[in-house]
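Lab notebook: predicted structure, single chain.

Context: the supervisor wants predicted structures on file for every construct in the current expression panel, including those that have not yet been purified. This is the next one on the list. No modifications to the sequence; it matches the entry in the shared construct table.
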Amino acid sequence: MSTPNARRSLKLGHKLGLAFGGTLALIALIVVVGGLSIAQMRTLQDEGAQRALDAQLSERVKLSLSRGYGVIADAVINRNLEESRRDWSDVTRQLRDELAELDQRVDTAEERASLATARAAAEDFIRTYEGEMLPILAGGSGVPPEIRQVDDKLDGHLARAIAPLDTIITSLNQESVATDKKFDENGQQTQVVNWVLSLLALVGVVA
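Prediction complete. Output recorded below exactly as produced.
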């Protein structure tokens, strides 16, 4: 038959065991919550960084379009058509590669529609130079009225390509900012949860 002291010892041991087990459970929960939060924050950080890189790619597309216009201006001024054709080939290849890469990056309906407009205008830009401007340049020196007319068309195609690219850049930058905000909010929420769980664990130890 157990004595009162023995029963008290058993009750105390049981109480300590429960407190210790509860504390361990809270510590395990802190570790799990922290691990999940870190994984989510890493994902958000990667998404934000990728959006920023995608915006930079869009800027490179605009730069390639400007380089293409520079090749055209050089061809009109210097009439070194063989060199201009080589430069034009390099620029248009890079431009199409960048547009194809950007097609894999955009992810909203607005961005895809803007990119489709930009690609169509870029192809019009390329076709107009190759099909209308080059034959005039190959026909002789000087600046006949036809060149100015074709140049106006090229300006229009260039503007129609750049405007939607600016729309894409704005959208991507907004996505990057929104992701950064989520990252900050997630970090603050995790900090609060860890404080609460740590306080509960401390209370469990003291109790």
